[in-house]
Amino acid sequence: MDLDTAVGYVLKRATVALRAAMDAALREHDLTVPQYSCLEQLAHQPGLTNTELARGTFVSRQAMHPLLATLKSLDLVHGDGGGRHQHFTLTDDGARRLHGASEAVAAVQERMLAPFDPGQRQRLYADLTACANALSP
User: What global pTM score does this model have?
Assistant: First the structure.
């Protein structure tokens, strides 16, 4: 396989570059990418469970437990209920922290997409969505 023309290789390079840029931007907000993803999920869908958050942030359920414990100890999320049936919401502090972090992540995304005009951006999104859908069960 020629790595210069391997779409999977280029996608991985883009993913690694995006993750590194997000890590750097989020460091200023004292958040990791998974923590940010969790807060973003809760802002759009309050009341998600541990399992739902794990699925939405692309981490295992086991990894989500300490992540949520950290967010709770920082008073960024609140859980109601018990055990596996806990439903999580953002606290006021969580919403404030997320606001700044979202702006930082949006700036990273804008930097990544700067070479594309609006039509190319729509096409890129559609093409990547089609690729993901083609490999999803």
Answer: 0.89
